[in-house]
């Protein structure tokens, strides 16, 4: 799991518009240092991609830095077929999508009661949710494993969906409650005068107005769930249910994997993650900073 | 019989909102509260996962505090806090300030954004996939790192290097997160502060120290807290890169409990480890929040 539990705008506007400061030779030194660091950070991505397209013979003949002699996709195809990667993608997508939607719905219901309804004892409810989200999954794993076996849910996608819905919703409740705490009450009062009940007010007024925040939550829940490893590793043991990170993580270091197939597997893990980053960046750049950071 | 009072209109007043908490309340009970209590209860028993657990009181905890592997695993946790929280926060502060205050102003915001995206990219990977990437790069016989530098180091298989290697991988993985959070925080800082300091002739380092750090203190706390918790929980990279080895050179509590749960079937002992880990994480969280409150 990543540490990225603070929802923020990864690409908000940078730097204030000001006339450029006087030029000095030192500035190029600073820029060079920062660019070198960027190259180091990106190096693994580049080198994995380069070598995923080499044949094993090509790899042992040249250096890892050399370009492929010819574009060789057999390593990727072989890995794809061996783990049935399409199935894994679908499993990950189904699990993460279901969790994201269900966790947003639960977060909205909770935050409606806590942020707008201001039910008594709401501070304690929030603390309990937050502690629940902070607990290490190790301290829940075995009982959950045991209970899911008893309930016949072990090795089903549903078990993982249920668990992560609760874990993500616990965090979403915390975030969304503070956002809805500032919801303009006049709008709700006007709706009440028009005879709209709480249920209608929630879906007709609160949800549409909070849509930008909700879509950010949805995206984060999706990505966080996609990236999960520990509980899916324990719960999804059959090939038909495994997620992308589990399938790739479990095969790592296996004897049958040669150098180029290993890099092909790494590449297949990287591509969806980077794709989400690129697709969702625009939503996240709309300057939405929901958050823990006031 | 007293007349039944007229029910207040459902849409007004504050009553009835708690109904909206019921679905989550039930699920939370089933997925978090009950399993956690079961875990605590199991930690006082000897149990292989089948049959009836035997109550043994604090025996698991007594064994735990005398178990060298347990203490080593927490020492490794401290090393990972350095790699995942301390180093990324310090380096992230310098990078964020340099990008925002220097590159953004002298080379334009697009350059700063591009550099930030490069630093952030590792963060978008599932941590297990990041482990696979580095497992491949550091492989002793065909790994790219050895090939490029002409070395023959067994980065992850040599007990002298394994922990340092894992730490380096985690710095790479984690660095982008503080950079992004700190740069978002810097947006809030009044540019007049910097201008005034510049007119007063304050050097870049002085401005960094007195303005940047003090203004984005809330972000620094959040980053330190979330990264420390992530370091305490770390599992995926250890599972993928080293499985806690060689020997117990990279053993961490979460992997140690996993080992006891599913490989050694010492469920009681595993539960004790997990309970201690949970306690530490909760205490760390409360300490951070207290310090932050006192500070502001």
From TrEMBL, chain B:
InterPro entries membership: ABC_transporter_permease, MetI-like, MetI-like_sf
PROSITE patterns, sorted: ABC_TM1
Domain of life: Bacteria
Chief place where the protein resides: membrane
CDD domains associated with the record: TM_PBP2
GO BP terms, alphabetized: transmembrane transport
Family of the protein in this entry: Belongs to the binding-protein-dependent transport system permease family.
Name the record gives this protein: Sugar ABC transporter permease
């Amino acid at each position: 799991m990543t540490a990225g539990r603070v929802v923020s705008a990864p690409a908000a506007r940078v730097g204030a518009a000001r006339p450029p400061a006087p030029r000095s030779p030192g500035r190029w030194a600073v820029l060079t240092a920062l660019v070198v660091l960027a190259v180091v950070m990106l190096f693994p991505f580049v080198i994995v991609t380069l070598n995923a397209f080499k044949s094993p013979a090509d790899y042992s003949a040249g250096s890892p830095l050399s370009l492929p002699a010819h574009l060789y996709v057999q390593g990727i195809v072989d890995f794809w077929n061996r783990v049935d990667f399409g199935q894994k993608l679908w499993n990950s997508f189904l699990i993460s999508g279901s969790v994201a939607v269900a966790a947003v719905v639960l977060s909205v219901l909770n935050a409606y009661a806590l942020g707008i309804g201001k039910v008594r004892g709401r501070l304690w409810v929030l603390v309990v949710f937050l502690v629940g989200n902070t607990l290490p999954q190790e301290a829940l794993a075995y009982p959950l494993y045991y209970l899911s076996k008893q309930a016949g849910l072990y090795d089903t996608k549903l078990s993982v969906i249920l668990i992560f819905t609760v874990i993500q919703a616990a965090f979403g409740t915390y975030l969304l409650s503070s956002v809805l705490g500032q919801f303009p009450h006049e709008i709700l009062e006007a709706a009440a005068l028009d005879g709209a009940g709480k249920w209608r007010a929630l879906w007709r007024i609160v949800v549409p107005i909070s849509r930008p925040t909700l879509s950010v939550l949805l995206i984060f829940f999706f990505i966080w769930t996609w990236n999960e490893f520990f509980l899916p590793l324990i719960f999804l043991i059959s090939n038909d249910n495994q997620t992308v990170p589990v399938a790739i993580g479990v095969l790592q270091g296996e004897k049958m994997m040669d150098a180029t197939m290993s890099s092909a597997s790494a590449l297949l893990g990287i591509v969806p993650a980077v794709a989400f980053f690129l697709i969702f960046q625009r939503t996240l750049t709309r300057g939405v900073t929901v958050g823990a950071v006031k | 019989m007293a007349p039944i009072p007229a029910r207040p209109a459902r849409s007004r007043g504050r009553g009835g909102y708690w109904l909206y908490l019921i679905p989550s309340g039930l699920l939370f009970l089933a997925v978090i509260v009950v399993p956690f209590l079961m875990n605590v209860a199991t930690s006082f028993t000897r149990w292989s996962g089948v049959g009836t657990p035997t109550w043994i009181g604090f025996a698991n905890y007594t064994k735990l505090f005398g178990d060298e592997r347990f203490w080593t695993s927490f020492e490794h946790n401290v090393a990972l806090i350095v790699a995942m929280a301390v180093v990324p926060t310090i380096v992230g502060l310098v990078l964020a300030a340099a990008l925002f205050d220097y590159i953004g102003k002298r080379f334009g915001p697009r350059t700063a954004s591009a550099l930030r995206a490069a630093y952030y990219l590792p963060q978008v990977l599932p941590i297990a996939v990041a482990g696979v990437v580095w497992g491949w790069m550091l492989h002793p016989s065909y790994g790219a790192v050895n090939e490029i530098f002409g070395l023959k180091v067994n980065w992850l298989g040599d007990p002298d290097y394994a922990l340092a290697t894992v730490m380096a991988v985690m710095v790479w993985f984690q660095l982008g997160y503080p950079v992004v959070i700190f740069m978002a925080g810097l947006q809030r800082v009044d540019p007049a502060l910097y201008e005034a300091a510049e007119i007063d002739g304050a050097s870049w380092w002085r401005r960094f120290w007195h303005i940047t750090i003090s203004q984005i203190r809330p972000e620094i706390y959040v980053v330190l807290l979330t990264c420390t918790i992530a370091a305490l929980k770390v599992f995926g990279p250890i599972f993928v890169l080293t499985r806690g080895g060689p020997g117990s050179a990279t053993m961490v509590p979460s992997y140690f409990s996993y080992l006891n749960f599913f490989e050694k079937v010492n469920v009681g002992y595993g539960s004790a480890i997990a309970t201690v880990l949970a306690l530490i994480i909760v205490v760390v969280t409360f300490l951070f929040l207290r310090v932050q409150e006192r500070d502001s």
